[in-house]
Write a structure and sequence with these properties.
By secondary structure, this protein is α+β, with helices and mostly antiparallel strands.
């Protein structure tokens, strides 16, 4: 039975990256850390396998923080977006300087064999969500846009697409 680290290694080899995996001393946690570019913005990517929990996580950290005065707008917008996502979700950390990330997790427990493209599919889903929403999230997390303006623009776009 393959371990989480095996799926991450298959992904790295398939995509042709030269990044190496890091593991803890017991081999229970394996991590890949690299940067991904969305237009001119670099996001930090972490893919982590926790063998004891039999889970694989994909984290994409967006390259901007959430302004404290915009936290409520950002949370409302994230809730609006998350409701529409098929897999994974955006979240804001509760640190002193809140950061925004996309998180996707797969539980490997109870499955004898996953497709070798598992991590690649997780990566594609995470990148697709970030690519679709990064501009809105940046605008709402800074001072450029509030939640009401976001939903108004979204309604206008929906109405335009429907006609």
């Amino acid at each position: 039975m393959k371990q989480g680290r095996d799926y991450i290694q298959l992904f790295v080899e398939a995509i042709g990256w030269k990044d190496s995996l890091e593991s803890d001393e017991e081999g229970k946690i394996t991590k890949l850390a690299t940067l991904i570019r969305f237009d001119k913005r670099l996001c930090r990517l972490f893919i982590e396998a926790y063998e004891d929990a039999r889970r694989i996580y994909v984290f994409l950290y967006l390259p901007f923080d959430v302004d404290h005065s915009k936290r409520l707008d950002a949370l409302q917008t994230i809730n609006h977006i998350n409701f529409r996502l098929g897999v994974g979700h955006f979240e804001i950390s509760d640190e002193a300087q809140p950061c925004l990330r996309f998180r996707l997790v797969i539980d490997l427990d109870g499955v004898l064999q996953w497709d070798d493209r598992l991590v690649g599919c997780m990566y594609d889903a995470a990148c697709g969500a970030v690519k679709q929403w990064i501009d809105v999230l940046q605008a709402v997390s800074t001072k450029a846009l509030n939640y009401e303006e976001f939903t108004h623009e979204l309604a206008l776009t929906h109405d335009k697409d429907a006609s």
